[in-house]
Amino acid sequence: MENVSNQQIIDALQGQFGEEAIYGIAESHGILQVTTEVEHIVPMLHFLYQHPVLKFQFLTDLAGIHFPEAKGQELGVIYHLHSLENNVRLWIKIYVPIEKPEVPTVTGLFATANWMEREAFDFYGIIFEGHPNLIRILNVEDMDYHPMRKEYPLEDATRHDKIDELFGR
Known about the structure:
By secondary structure, the protein is of the alpha/beta class. 22% of the residues lie in helices and 26% in strands. The chain has a single domain, classed as Beta Polymerase, domain 2, CATH 3.30.460.
């Protein structure tokens, strides 16, 4: 088993894709986080999967995110990868404008991405181009909005059965 450092991962990614393609480099609790552009995500995931040392062959999670104040980058996807052989994790983030929330699917590389991408579509409206069955997974099909976007209130203002004091309000 290799002892892979976060710096080795950064060096491998920048060596393959260039320094301008890997930015927003940070670390949280030992987990490396990087940001890239949409056009790099599929080749980058293939590179990390096939790398003879890094071996990021497990997609732990794929999550949609919404930052309404970030003009032109309101929606995003975070890919949580794990190299089981090296016991190293990595997060890769990409951002898209809310007017064109299109991201390529990664179901061809990770079968588990199927349900994860459907969930991100269902709750955030992120369209995963090339997905084999991009339909809602938890909400009803005729729903005309995406409930996890921050443009919707957390609670139903018409409800009168809640006592605010019990919730610390």
